[in-house]
Amino acid sequence: MLLAVSYVKAQERSLDMSVDTVALDRVDVYAPDYKKYSLGHTVKSVAKENLQEFQGQDLGSLLQQRSGIFVRQYGPGMLASVTMRGASAGHTAVFWNGLPINSPSLGQTDFSILPVSGIDQATIHFGGSAALYGTDAIGGSIHLGNELKFNQGHHGEIQQGLGSFGRFNSQVKYGYSNGIIALRTSAYRNSAQNDFPFRNRSKLGQPIERQVNAAIEQYGVNQDFGWNVGTRSQIKNSIWWNLTDRQLQPLMGSNAREVQKDQNLRWAMDYLLFGEKSLLNLKAGIVRDEMIFDRNSRNLVTQYLFSTDIEKQIANNWDSKSGVRYTIIDGNLSSYRATDNRLEVYHSSSFRFTDRFSTSLNLRQLVYEGNWAPFTPSLSGTYRLFKNERHQLDANTALSRNFKVPTLNDRFWQPGGNPDLLPEDSWSSEIGLLHNWDLENTQVETRVNYYRMTVENWIIWQPTGNFWSPSNIRDVTNSGVETFLEMRQKVGLGVIGLNLNYNYTSAQISSDDNESTVGSQLPYTPLHKTNLQISYKLNSLRVFAAQTYVDENFVTTDNSLEIPSYTLYDIGAIWDLQLFGQDLMLQGQIHNLLNTEYQVLRQRPMPGRNYHVNIHFKF
After folding, report:
1. DSSP 492-531
2. What are the CA-CA distances from residue 298 to residues 88, 110, 215, 331, 612 (Å)?
3. CB within 8 A of 515, min separation 6: which ones?
4. What is the DSSP letter of 441?
5. Ramachandran sector of residue 556 (left: φ over 0; alpha: ψ -120 to 50; beta: rest)
6. Are 399 and 429 in contact (CB under 8 A)?
7. Cα dist from 285 to 55, 186, 240, 407, 553, whole Å
8. b/e for 172-190, b at 16 or more Cβ within 10 A?
9. Where are the domains of the chain?
């Protein structure tokens, strides 16, 4: 993923002061991969206002309540994994500043330990995108990043929040930038007791009890640095250290008192060299993930990444990028010690044939430990069906092959690891319409997609004698409909906003060793999920209400045990003020307004009505 940057080409200026016309410097803007080479795909950026609403909370909660993605949550602050388009948690690729951060041992990311405080931007790429990003991107990909700005001078922020059940969050930022350098340091602390009341359905009489052993404490530091080296090159360096120490919320009726500590260190450095119509990007990075479970089981996995690619405008209507990425993985886990070496070669092109028709072509080949992953091409495009002063209607389509490399645990866990596992292999197709309606006081954007995806060689762990072992035994077919609606309507002096996300997801087992599961919906994959947010902004005050609906879903592959559907309501307000000439933001929210009793995963209670307030001061 390329850093979105701009540069100014130096030009000679006339010394004749009588000249009243000044030629502006040229500015070239380079878009990230998921913008430029994903024409026809659905790529949605998380709104800045949503990031602000969830300061002090984890990214999993934000995605569950605002994105349409279903997040499997083991409790507030507990393990949270996403499922996109019905694919498994390990079928979503996650990146931070262009670095893949999925755990090579587990094959997924725990979104509960990714605080919203640690990022400035988040973008969701729906659907298969392995040709652009590599392994894991079968259901989609999520891109997180930090944003640096030049010529801002000295600036800082202080944020303090508190809420129900012992929630407490703090953050402080300081930055300085001029035309040559930009730096920013951020530190945060988030904590919660999570001692909420719940109905214990595992006991006779279903008494109301307080949740125990669910406290969480989190610390983190971000350091970002940018340097414009002359007029044609730039260096960007980002470091993110995060420590999460938590008790693990037990099942209802269990007396377990387990704990887990996660320590994550991520470092990414980019060197960018701008040519007349080209961009060279050299990247290096380290992702170090340490997990200590119950104080005695230590798992440490480190990834070292090196990549280089060159992007070039071959013609006015043809952009192209080619590159290579090399990754070294060192796993030192309680059950085994293993290394993995991965080499990827990739190419992307975008063609604008006419003002109405554009396409993207992406190609990628990965080799890991001498094994060839499936060659992954993707072809997508967009065609403008209609456009006038008020309306624009585009048709979008995409076809891609995608894959997931077996994790370190899949191959090397002792006992039971299977080094002969094949990569999971997927084909994905989609078609959709995008309609924009722009009036004087109204803007509406509507997108509707239909997709279909097959996954072969799905890896399943099952008992084999005295231990469990993985094998490629299942095929899955997913299809569904996605609907996205964004509207802004000026009413009097204010603006009404409406955001709607609806997902219909049919994820069925098409073949399995257990014939009784064929045709069943995948566990913890709701058929319907809806997110709705309505807001009203008047001058500096914004109020909003949000609804999340999750359909019933199943616990087992034979669909014999289900989780009931639920609907949650939130309300909140954000007020921007001036204090001593500086910006002050006051924010308050009520979550689960109707005190609904619900579970996301079976026997894992979730909190009822709860509150959260934030004070944000900028100087």
Report:
1. TTEEEEEEEEEEEEEEEEEE-SSGGGTTPBPTT--SEEEE
2. 25, 17, 21, 11, 34
3. none
4. S
5. beta
6. yes
7. 27, 20, 11, 20, 39
8. ebebebeeeebebbbbbbb
9. 36-618
Pair type for strands 92-96 and 140-145: parallel
Q: What is the 3-state secondary structure of 111-127?
A: HHHCEHHHCCEEEEEEC
Nearest Cα to Cα of residue 563 among 602, 537, 525: 602
Strand-pairing partners, residue 81, are 72
Report the 10 Å Cβ neighbour count for 501: 20
Share of the chain above pLDDT 90, in %: 87
Class of residue 139 by CB neighbours under 10 A (exposed 0-12, middle 13-18, buried 19+): buried
The CATH classification of domain 36-618, taken from the options 3.40.50.700, 3.30.420.10, 2.40.170.20, 3.40.1280.10 = 2.40.170.20
What are phi and psi for residue 410, nearest 5 degrees?
-55, -40
pTM greater than the 0.85 cutoff = yes
Maximum CA pair distance of the chain? 92
Separation CA 12–CA 3 (nearest Å) = 28
How many whole angstroms separate alpha carbon 8 and alpha carbon 415? 58
Cα of first residue to Cα of last residue in the chain, in angstroms, is: 32
Taking only the tens place, the pLDDT of each residue in 477-523 is 999 999 999 999 999 999 999 999 999 999 999 988 888 889 999 99
Quickly count: other Cβ atoms within 10 Å of residue 41's Cβ: 27
- Residues forming a β-bridge with 469: 462
Preceding amide of 415 cis, omega within 30: yes
What's at 291, amino acid-wise?
M
For residues 603 and 575, give the distance between their C-alpha atoms in angstroms, rounded to a whole number.
38
Q: Is 586 helix (H, G, I), strand (E, B) or coil?
A: strand
Q: How many CB atoms lie within 10 A of CB 251?
A: 15
Write down the pLDDT at residue 34: 67
> Sorting pLDDT into bands at 50, 70 and 90, what band is 32?
low
Tokens standing for 189? 């602390």
59 burial level (CB within 10 Å; 0-12, 13-18, 19+): buried
User: Strand 92-96 relative to strand 197-199: parallel, antiparallel, unpaired?
Assistant: unpaired
What is the C-alpha to C-alpha distance for residues 62 and 276, in angstroms, rounded to an integer?
A: 41
How far is it, in rounded angstroms, from Cα 463 to Cα 274?
A: 55
Neighbour tally for 414: CB within 10 Å: 12
Task: Tell me how many degrees the CA angle 122-236-291 measures, rounded to the nearest 5.
Answer: 60
Can you tell me whether residue 346 is helix, strand or coil? strand
What backbone phi and psi angles, to 5 degrees, belong to 103? -65, 125
Of 17 and 220, the one with more pLDDT: 220
Evaluate the CA torsion angle 65, 67, 72, 77 in order and state its sign: negative
Predicted local distance difference test score (pLDDT) of residue 575: 96
Measure the CA–CA gap between 578 and 399, rounded to whole angstroms: 51
- Token pair recorded at residue 105: 């041992």
Nearest C-alpha neighbor of 61 from the set 526, 548, 523, 604: 548
Kindly state the tokens that stand for 330. Answer: 């060192």
Cα separation, 79 vs 143, whole angstroms: 19
Amino acid at 317: N
